[in-house]
Design a protein that fits this description.
This protein is α/β, with parallel strands linked by helices and 425 residues long. The protein has 18 helices and 14 strands. The strands form 2 sheets. Strands 5, 6, 7, 8, 9, 10, 11, 12, 13 and 14 form a 10-stranded mixed beta sheet that branches. A hairpin with a 2-residue loop joins β7 and β8. α1 packs across α5 and α4 packs across α5. The longest helix is centred in the C-terminal third of the chain and has 24 residues.
Amino acid sequence: MNLYWKAADILKDTNSKRSDVKKSIFKHKDDKYFKTLYSMVSGIKSCEAQLDSMLKSLIDIEPEAASENENLLKVLLYELVVQNRKIRIGGRVIRFVKRNLASLKSNVEIKSKLIKKKISLRVRNVKLIPEELKSASKPIEGIPKIFSMDYETYSDFNKQHFPLYKHRNFVLQSVSSSIPVFFLWKLSKSIPRPFSIVEACSAPGNKTLQLSDYFRACDVFSFEKNFKRFGILKERLQFYLKSKEKDSNQLANVKIINSDYFEALKVLTSEQANSVKVACLDPSCSGSGMLNRVNDSLVSFEKEDLEKLLGTKESEEKERVEKLSEFQFEIVDATMKSFPNLELVSYSTCSLYKEENEDVVKKLLISNPDFDLVKLPALFGASRAVNFWDENWSKISRGLRFSPNGKETDGFFVAIFRKKLRGNN
């Protein structure tokens, strides 16, 4: 099936059933052009309201277009108007768009609002940044070694100089993804080195690489249960990190482990388990903050909006989120109970649902009274996590929520737990 039709089918599936976009996209994970499809649908969803407006304008000009596949029309509008790409299909539907392309492209006001065309780049060694890149990008305030540039500049740089994604000094990593490790690094400075770090659900490996770079004197034990995703993790780390042997799972200070994280204590030696003082946990989630269907209605993180958010979804999505929430709780709870010398734990999701965020945090605090929440600084205009209960749970607001409409971030949630000092309640 043509790539554009696949994208249109995903839009139809999510728009008619209000199902999860990420889940719909990953039905095509074995497709040869999966990455292109993922990028295309992500871009369309991030600006769908504006594309709908553009589609309405097109139908006003070409009434016959109303009888065509509206989702395919949106895909073509996105590719031709927003991304300025050439379309490799023919037929009546493409002619409707091409006949009015000049008029649509001239609407600069609409085009400028369509999509966050930002690429964020983590630089592993700032001393090795070429002057051309310094002038083409700008550092992101708040987190060191993260730079951003618009997509067009990024694309031009790759063509004129060298492909950044093929250079070991540069990691394409979203700002949101870099936040948990940054907080762990800042908060762990009082913990004597060396110590060990555990990470669960590690693929594709951006946080793993960041842990390796930020904690050079520490060992990192990264778990990934899924064999295929473990292969992706290993291949990515082998590109960036040195190993003594070609097939080794020990890369620099990272040990990658293809195992169920709940079996961690059986895999690690007692000496390794006792050395663990930091945990970075970003378990599987709904992804509702990355590719979400709620931007039109959810304009803020008001308590009332968030409480009813999942209720707008169909039963299949509710059941899936309920299972994910339980898994998320179990993986963090097991970590807190398994490593006797653990001091810091980060918990993060790219979800907007309270069921995967504040609800999980509350359950963890009840189950682990020897841990408390760290009040995090509100980087990038983040909102405080929401206390959905009474004043006894005001500490929940020490965590952070990042908006999917944020200038630098996707929809994201992060909370950091710290073990209490003995004798403190």
